[in-house]
Write a structure and sequence with these properties.
372 residues; Rossmann fold
């Protein structure tokens, strides 16, 4: 007998790569299970999802929604009106697309459409990537049918009966086991005899991490090391002028690294912010890391994410305010201590991570969509 049901899903959220790439991973996993399923994305106008989602082959609708500026700004006057407009567009989108399930992965857009979907009695799911949830997901948790989480102990924030501990979806390409270190080193035109440090400040870059790399670059010859450095589009042109010809072979500067599978494969250690996506990739790939949490995020959730690893001695912690001062000594200590590197890898085995999180969440979506 032929199939009688193919799911229609709306996946919403974005703002940063940490929300966008897991959303795409979930969509791709749904398509692998059921190629006839229909998926529509909803994001926020002007944010990076409006480019990245179409590049991944999916349609997206943009909402005019935005957050409140922390500093006093006239732009804040518009926020309630943009929210009302976004709720109305969400209602019209749901009426037209008729989804079986609506998913929120974080970001302003997910708040509007998941809320409206819950009012319209459509199956809803949120995927909380962090160890400490933001206010939006805390509010939505009371209305949605299912909450997929990546860290233990989330019943402190969400209704226990709705929680499923699944892990964070990671980009499938980084799980490609066929890539070896030699191939990755060649791709980045690096020296196979040197230790390689991968520095990733998130999809938008990170000023503190870039300052750390500027300090570290003068020590590379002494360390017998080289850097793959994702600095962010905003910082790229200025930083490019600060790298001279003699350093060019040791420093591979990129505004954004599209081949993260090769970047991870080439690296001996990773220096990173502590966004949920980065933490999950580091845990899944068992990469020794130095984590520098961003202090400029809601509820300081990056520090809490980092502590989920460092409390198990599975990563090295540097605070944002001390990072620039301590980065050279920290990197030097780690690169010269193979015993510590092996300890970090071993302790990463104890950290909860799930290589199949995307598929597991996709199956939850399909089950949920059939229930109503």
């Amino acid at each position: 007998m032929g199939k009688t049901f193919s799911m229609k899903a709306i996946i919403s959220g974005g703002g940063t790569g940490g929300h966008i790439f897991p959303a795409i991973a979930i969509a791709n996993a749904v398509k692998e299970i059921d190629k006839d399923s229909e998926i529509l994305f909803v994001g926020a106008k002007g944010k990076m999802e409006m480019d990245k989602i179409p590049e991944a082959g999916y349609n997206i609708i943009g909402l005019p929604i935005r957050g409140i500026q922390r500093k006093i700004s006239l732009q804040n006057i518009k926020v309630p009106f943009l929210l009302i407009q976004s709720l109305w567009i969400s209602y019209k989108t749901i009426k037209k697309f008729k989804p079986d399930v609506v998913v929120g992965v974080g970001g302003y857009a997910s708040a509007a459409i998941v809320y409206i979907a819950s009012l319209m009695k459509i199956s809803t799911l949120i995927q909380e990537q962090n160890s400490y949830p933001g206010i939006t997901n805390k509010i939505l948790s009371k209305r949605v049918d299912l909450i997929c989480v990546a860290f233990e102990g989330m019943d402190a924030f969400f209704p226990k009966e709705k929680i499923k501990l699944i892990g964070n979806p990671v980009r499938q390409d980084i799980l490609n086991k066929s890539i070896d270190k030699k191939q990755a080193i060649e791709f980045f035109h690096l020296d196979p005899d040197k230790k390689t440090v991968l520095a990733i400040g998130g999809s938008l870059g990170a000023q503190t991490l870039n300052q750390c790399m500027l300090k570290l670059k003068g020590e590379l010859k002494q360390l017998d090391a080289q850097i793959i450095w994702q600095c962010g589009k905003t910082y790229y042109q200025k930083l490019k002028t600060q790298i001279d010809d003699s350093e060019d072979k040791l420093i591979k500067l990129h505004p954004f690294i599209s081949r993260m599978d090769l970047a991870y494969a080439a690296s001996d250690i990773v220096i990173s912010r502590a966004g949920a996506l980065s933490i999950s990739e580091i845990a899944v790939l068992k990469k020794p890391s130095i984590l520098i949490p961003s202090p400029n995020v809601a509820e300081d959730h990056q520090t809490k994410n980092a502590l989920a690893l460092t409390n198990q001695k599975a990563a090295v912690f540097l605070s944002d305010k001390d990072a620039s001062q301590n980065i050279i000594a920290t990197v030097k200590s780690l690169l010269k201590d193979q015993g510590q590197i092996e300890d970090l890898k071993r302790n990463l085995e104890k950290v909860f991570s799930n290589r199949n999180a995307s598929t597991d969440i996709a199956n939850e979506l399909i089950d949920l969509s059939r229930k109503k």
